[in-house]
Amino acid sequence: MNLSGEVALITGAAQGLGRAIAMAYVRSGCRVVVADINAAGASDVAVQIDASGERAAAVPLDVSDADSCRQAVQATLQRFGKLSVLVNCAVFAKYGPLADIRPGTVDRMLAVGLKGPLLLSQAAAEPMRLAGGGVIINISSVVALTGIAYSSAYACIKGGLDAMTRALAVELGPVGIRVNSLAPSAIPSAMSNANLDANGWEERRRRTALGRIGSQDDVAAAALFLASPEAAFLTGVVLPVDGGFSIAGMVPGVDLAEVGRTRD
After folding, report:
1. Who's near 94: CB < 8 A, 6+ residues apart?
2. Catalytic: which of 25, 95, 150, 154?
3. Any idea where the Ketoreductase domain is (predicted)?
């Protein structure tokens, strides 16, 4: 898949999935702007991707601030002359029992995970329209597709993000802007490793139809596809990148006949 000539603004790209997507895009010929509230980390990633600065640049970005979002879009336009693809990957997530949820934590999760993508989509839509079209990709999660305990606040955010994806796809489709979501399962990263121990990862693996944990490269490949001409007729889609985790009715490999005999 070839993104030569395209320019992408990727949020939360100083680490994790955002960084992996930025690297995949540059390998496909795209120029990228690495955006993150961690300005030093964003600069480091941009240099790692392309020290010459011809294909990668960094901008500081607080996605919860409308002015910061507009400035990031303008910086992209000034640096590379256009904006073809917006990837909303920035996230702030906390897991835990319902009783432990704190209002301040929820406010921050909503500001980063839901308000941010809306503000950035708003800032990016007009330059994309003027250029004849573009692509917006929202990084959602399987928590919006299937019930997972201790993720109620996070599920609210990602479920709202998927609803926003569908609404924007209808609104922006007539001006040539496609809007889709990717819904990964748990992918090894600093954030997920802080929430899952070895037993937790093994449980996720056992409940995944393909029998393995996904990688950041798996998600980056899907993000590359959605940005590419090969996905030109896809919009309003929530695409699971989860190895079958969200559709598995029970742990794969369970012998139902044996279960029945045991019950008898």
Report:
1. 105, 109, 153, 154
2. 154
3. 6-204
Return d(Cα 160, Cα 144) in angstroms, integer.
Answer: 8
Which CATH number goes with the domain that contains 168?
Answer: 3.40.50.720
- Per the model's pLDDT, the better-predicted residue between 136 and 149 turns out to be 136
Per the domain annotation, does 2 fall within a domain? no
Using alpha carbons, select from 139, 131, 121 the residue that is nearest to residue 175. 131
Residues 106-139: pLDDT tens digits?
A: 999 999 999 999 999 999 999 999 999 999 999 9
Say if CB 194 and CB 217 are below 8 A apart. Answer: no
**Interatomic CA distance for residues 33 and 117, integer angstroms:** 16
pLDDT at 260 over 70: no
Q: Is residue 97 part of a domain?
A: yes
* 1 within domain boundaries: no
Nearest to 37 by CA among 110, 124, 116, 105: 116
- How confident is the model over 7-63, as pLDDT tens digits? 999 999 999 999 999 999 999 999 999 999 999 999 999 999 998 889 999 999 999
Better-scored residue on pLDDT, 201 or 35: 35
Least Cα distance to 45 among 77, 78, 13 occurs for 13
Look up the domain containing 142 and give its range: 7-263
Count of domains forming the chain: 1
154 is catalytic: yes
Using CA atoms of 206, 208, 212, 217 in order, give the dihedral in degrees to the nearest 10. -150
